[in-house]
Amino acid sequence: MRRFTSGFWLILALLALWEVSARAGWVDSPNWPPLTHVLAALLRDTASGEIPMLVGSTLARMFAGLAGGTVAGVAMGLLFGASPLAARVLGPTVELVRPIPIPAIIPPLVLFLGLDNGMKISIAAITAFFPVLTNTAQGLRAVEADQLAMARTFGVPAWRRLFLVTLPAILPYVLAGLRVALALALVTTVVAEMIAGEQGVGHYLVLMQFAGRAEEMYAAVLVLAALGYALNRGFLWLERRLIGWFFATGRDG
């Protein structure tokens, strides 16, 4: 609680410094408006429904890609765990592709998918795929061998072992990867909107920049900051509800 309070006061101090620096002319530029002007623009565009509509468009793309990337990452991780041959054949390709910066993938995707939602959703999916795959594989290595052996001894079918033993055991690891993927997917979705313009917070931010409307531009930045924070806190809350037992036993450390 004390750490949160200290961080809260630091944020307030930085926001106050923003307001004072603009009012006092420390940054003598029309591109550095006072915070109060930015907040006024934010409230105006929120009340008009523009900001909620933009946020909804961005989140819809992000969550669609996140869902697809998560399913693919878990499936690939389970395949690697079940088939050493698949891991040997596909593993090098995954390791080769993973270091490629996500923005570098956008131009080829634009060529094949155009500027529609499919490209932006694909970017979010690719972003989510790798951290989920990595953590799923790590979780499979942590599954207790004696648990699986006991299930086999009692004649539990393979598909039931998957749902009764393997998936519950790897869930904390999958969620850890998903938390990383969530933050990255928001970033890459916004970047895709900035590069391949269409309705969304990223496209709005670029439009305001080129139009010289600094107040609206900074308002979009604040929206993205608040959105990222809210998504992270919401995911942590959900994670605690789903796997509270994992943290209670101290196995996360």
Question: Would you give an account of this structure?
Answer:
The model has no long low-confidence stretch (mean pLDDT about 85). Helices cover about 85% and strands about 0% of the residues. The protein is built from ten helices and no strands. The relative contact order is 0.12. It has a single domain (about 35-245), classed as MetI-like fold (Orthogonal Bundle), CATH 1.10.3720. Helix 2 (about 35-45) crosses helix 10 (about 215-250). Keywords: Cell membrane, Membrane, Transmembrane, Transmembrane helix, Transport.
> End-to-end distance, in Å?
21 Å
Helix- and strand-based class? mainly alpha
Task: Quote the average pLDDT.
Answer: 86
- What CATH architecture would you give? Orthogonal Bundle
Main location: membrane
Membrane topology: Multi-pass membrane protein
Keywords: Cell membrane, Membrane, Transmembrane, Transmembrane helix, Transport
Transmembrane segments: 62-84, 96-115, 121-143, 164-197, 217-238
Please give a quick description of this structure.
The protein is mainly alpha-helical and 253 residues long. The chain is built from 10 helices and no strands. The protein is 84% helix and 0% strand.
